[in-house]
Write a structure and sequence with these properties.
Blueprint: E1 7-9, E2 12-14, H1 27-32, H2 44-47, H3 59-63, E3 67-74, E4 84-92, E5 102-107, H4 118-122, H5 128-131, E6 134-140, H6 167-188, H7 197-210, E7 216-221, H8 223-234, E8 239-245, H9 257-260, H10 263-278, H11 281-284, H12 290-306, E9 309-311, E10 314-316, H13 321-326, H14 335-349, H15 358-369, H16 376-385, H17 392-402, H18 410-413, E11 438-443, H19 451-460, E12 465-470, H20 484-496, E13 504-507
Parallel strand pairs: 5-6, 5-7, 7-8, 8-11, 11-12, 12-13
Antiparallel strand pairs: 1-2, 3-4, 4-6, 9-10
């Protein structure tokens, strides 16, 4: 999904990520869009455009040998003579033209994640014979980054928020989310309905043909797994070797159902982290046992609800403090950072003057002040893709019911979002169900896209194989968490197209 965790990108910090899916979601659109003969002639000027490759003007991309171009696409594919957008792409060439297999497109998640530089780091997990075979294509999807951007001019950074600890906190969230939705309607108006996954999939097919390719391979993480599945559903004959890493549940995709699934795995991650911190109680002083550490965190959130904690020039309330904890929980590598920052906040709560470390200051700047930018493109996609319940009472009931079993993260998983106040989507969500060969990679402890959701994706993609990383709380494995078993399966599939004969379980 990325409703994705906050991740570092070339743009700095960028974020994280429903009612039942309509039975006829793809319908005739999937038929007419899956072949050149069914494509409207009025789209030919987009499919046949000539790309002007230039320097990317970004050191990491240029040093990797990338070149960049802009692809023109229609804002509304049903009105191809109307307004247009540009989609920024990058290309790192295959290292051996003699072995070249084709192009590999990508998406890093979000939704709303900028992906122009995605392969700069991720390609380091590829073996030399895989790199020899593919031109690696990065992309800032429509509405994001160097593509024609969505900018709702929010005063705060996120469209996903913790609800606080009581009815007052929920009321504050409801007012905030309504305001964010209103700001998007005012700032972006009639462009918003077209910043969607289905239109991004159509953009990918324009990119495919503009690159002169019959098919694309694909590597998507988090939300990018849903985008890849939608493309394969809409354009199955154009889909070659697809890898979905950290898969969303396609039946619960959206700003409600998908986010609900994050409550339980994050509570489990909190317990595991608390045990880790307790073993280092002399350093972090948050508790000598796991339950003591958890109690400290819950007390700290309650304290922030009573009176915001002043740290540096930021005021951290109960909507913000648990988000600081949530962000590094996408990987065990984030445990030390989370502990350090909870210690800083605990000291500040006790009245000690504290300046936040650079990372914490960056998080608070984007959460509280939308600096360097807000994450409104994420909500544009989520709200434009799938409708959600609109009655605030529905969220309030679910939130109160979850507080017993999910005392910290239920306030995120069950909270209301701007989508409750958004205009209805112009297209139905895509029902996923096809036989495109696909490799799904998933950790059982994934805190962003729950393992149960990946199993649903696996069942929906009937020709898929699944590689499970057992007992690790990591979100998106390939390129982030080296594991010989997982990396071997991914590289073998990308190298020669061979899926495992059966599902595979890997261990750390």
């Amino acid at each position: 999904m990325r409703f994705r965790e906050i991740a570092r990108s070339r743009k700095g910090l960028t974020a994280l990520v429903v009612t039942g899916l309509a039975a006829a979601a793809v319908g005739t659109a999937a038929v007419t869009e899956r072949s050149d003969t069914g494509r409207a002639e009025s789209l030919d000027r987009y499919y046949h455009q000539r790309l002007d490759w230039k320097s990317c003007a970004e050191p990491e991309l240029d040093d990797a040998g990338a070149r960049c171009a802009e692809v023109t696409v229609p804002l509304d594919y049903t009105q191809p003579q109307g307004r247009t957008l540009t989609v920024a792409i990058s290309r790192i060439p295959a290292t051996d033209p003699a072995q070249r297999h084709g192009v590999m497109l990508s998406n890093p998640g979000g939704p709303g994640g900028a992906g122009l530089d995605y392969f700069v780091d991720t390609s380091k997990a590829m073996t030399a014979d895989v790199r020899a075979r593919y031109d690696l294509i990065g992309m800032d999807p429509r509405g994001v980054g160097r593509s024609t951007p969505v900018n709702c001019h929010w005063p705060t950074g996120f469209g996903l928020q913790f609800a606080g600890v009581d009815a007052k906190g929920f009321a504050e969230s409801e007012a905030t989310q309504r305001d964010l939705a209103d700001r998007c309607a005012t700032a972006e108006g009639d462009r918003l309905p077209y910043i969607t996954t289905r239109n991004t999939a159509r953009d990918m097919d324009v990119i495919r043909e503009a690159l002169g390719e019959r098919q694309i391979s694909y590597l998507g993480t988090s939300y990018g797994t849903y985008l890849g599945a939608v493309y394969a559903q809409m354009f199955p004959e154009r889909s070659d070797r697809f890898v979905l890493d950290g898969s969303v549940d396609p039946e619960r995709y959206g700003a409600s159902g998908m986010v609900q699934l994050m409550g339980a795995p994050n509570e489990a991650a909190l317990d595991a982290w608390a045990v880790w911190v307790a073993a280092r109680s002399d350093e972090y002083r948050l508790g000598a046992t796991g339950p003591e550490v958890r109690a400290t965190i819950e007390q700290l959130i309650a304290r922030a609800a009573e009176r915001p904690i002043r740290i540096g020039d930021f005021d951290v309330d109960a909507h913000t403090l648990p988000m600081v904890l949530y962000i590094p929980f996408d990987s065990p590598h984030g445990y030390a950072l989370a502990a350090q920052q909870m210690r800083e906040l605990a000291d500040a709560a006790a009245g000690t003057p504290v300046q936040p470390d650079e990372d914490l200051a960056g998080k608070l700047a984007i959460i509280l002040r939308a600096r360097p930018h807000d994450l409104s493109p994420q909500m544009a996609v989520l709200c434009g893709d799938a409708g959600v319940p609109r009655d605030p009472a529905w969220y309030r009931r679910n939130l109160e019911a979850a507080r017993t079993t999910e005392p910290v993260f239920g306030a995120l998983a069950e909270n209301i979002t701007p989508c409750a106040f958004w205009a209805p989507p112009v297209e139905s969500p895509t029902v996923i169900g096809n036989s495109v060969p696909t490799l799904i990679v998933q950790a059982t402890g994934d805190t962003r896209t729950a393992y149960s959701g990946a199993l649903v994706m696996h069942r929906a993609l009937t020709a898929s194989r699944m590689v499970t990383l057992q007992d690790v709380a990591i979100h998106s494995i390939f390129g982030r968490y080296p594991n010989t078993c997982v990396y071997g399966a991914v590289n073998t599939y990308l190298r020669d197209g061979s899926l495992p004969a059966a599902d595979v379980t890997c261990r750390d």
